[in-house]
Design brief:
With 381 residues, this protein is an alpha/beta fold. Helix content is 43%, strand content 11%. Helix 12 packs parallel to helix 13 and helix 13 runs parallel beside helix 14.
Length: 381
């Protein structure tokens, strides 16, 4: 059984290798062993991570696969896999639905990363009792692990926990123990692992890899957040949640930032005005994105561990469309130049690939990400 699963995974990888340009090394560099199925993907939110499921439009998913996306990151609400939070009958029903969802995605040709996505209750447990939280994560993977392991031949992987709500010093030993336990359930599956907290670039480049070698490291990239998250209401009272029109790139002394400082939001909230005053000297552009991706590529090559940009995106309601596209293209291009796979956040909501008015893929966003046209739909083999 183990041999056949590994063979199945090799066959799947061979079919996508030519399309997986994200793992082309920079001149003179050698990439670590790659997972070509993780080269280009998106997070499929709303299906198994919300109280009321919003299944995707499978015709749209097929169109995205035809355009060159190779994997789906599938967030699963962690608490719904844990007996302390959820009745056993509900866990059983949810597990069955997830298995069916994995099979539908595989039928479309997607690799899948099953992403354990913690909510407020798990976060509170981590703050109150990290060991109990660790054991709850292990329990969740006892439920989900057999689903993943049974589908390793279809390139299904397991992401230990999205943005662990503890610092690196706490998370590192917890993750080691969780991974050991997960490996008992999933002896051949690839695990996506991370540093603690928001999974930032500088956290990973300062980290020592986990002992388990069949792992891919994920970082989340939203720099600068004043651009990528401007106007996101859920951030309030953080001043970023009140901003609109922040440009990309940003130049030191940019008059557009000064203009925002005279906006009604800035005038009505002293905290916003103070925050904008602190941005007067901010400079952030494509070269900064390239520097961050290069640091990740260097770490990956030095450690021999693949790295994927597990989340990146721009909240679309308040960023100028051209600036959003420029940022997406910059991250995608710099990631691919440094052997890094990527997963866009997300499918259809505030950061999504889908046009909220039509329900169809946003052609401008697809152009920035996969750089392919309607006349060139099929992946090259």
């Amino acid at each position: 059984m183990r041999t056949s699963r590994l063979l199945g995974r090799s066959i799947f990888a061979a079919t996508v290798f030519a399309a997986a340009s994200a793992f082309a090394a920079p001149p003179g560099a050698v990439c670590p062993p790659a997972h070509p199925e993780l080269a280009r993907g998106f997070s499929l939110t709303g299906w198994f991570d919300e109280p009321i499921a919003r299944p995707p439009d499978f015709a749209v998913l097929k169109a995205l696969r035809d355009r060159g996306f190779l994997h789906v990151r599938l967030p699963v609400a962690a608490e719904r896999m844990m007996a302390r939070f959820t009745p056993a009958a509900t866990i059983t029903a949810e597990r069955r639905a997830i298995g069916e969802g994995l099979d539908r995605l595989a039928a479309l040709g997607f690799a899948v990363v099953v992403d354990l996505h913690g909510g407020a209750r798990l976060g509170e447990l981590f703050r109150r009792d990290p060991i109990a939280a660790r054991d709850a994560v292990i329990e969740a993977w006892r439920v989900l692990g057999p689903l993943v392991e049974a589908r390793v031949g279809r390139a299904v992987a397991a992401e230990v926990l999205n943005e662990p709500p503890v610092e690196d010093a706490v998370w590192a030993p917890l993750q080691e123990r969780i991974v050991v336990a997960m490996r008992r359930e999933m002896p051949t599956a690839t695990f996506v692992v991370s540093t603690g907290g928001p999974q930032r670039v500088e956290r990973l480049t300062a980290a020592t890899p986990i002992a388990d070698a069949n792992t891919v490291y994920a970082v989340h990239y939203y720099d600068p957040m004043v651009f990528t998250h401007q106007g996101a209401d859920w951030l309030k009272p953080d001043p970023i949640g009140s901003l609109t029109g922040v440009p990309f790139p940003i130049a030191s002394g940019d008059p557009r930032i000064a203009a925002i400082a005279t906006s009604p939001a800035a005038k009505s909230d002293p905290a916003v005005g103070t925050y904008l005053g602190g941005l007067a000297g901010l400079s952030f552009g494509v070269s900064d994105v390239e520097r961050h991706m290069r640091a990740l590529g260097d770490w990956s090559r030095a450690t021999g561990r693949p790295v994927v940009i597990g989340e990146f995106g721009v909240y679309r309601d308040h960023a100028k469309p051209a600036d959003r596209l420029a940022w997406l293209a910059a991250v995608r291009g710099a990631a691919e130049a440094n052997c890094l796979g990527w997963t866009h956040w997300e499918y259809r909501d505030g950061f999504g690939l889908i046009d909220g008015r039509t329900g169809e893929p946003d052609e401008a966003v697809l152009s920035a990400l996969v750089d392919r046209r309607k006349g060139d739909l099929a992946p090259r083999h």
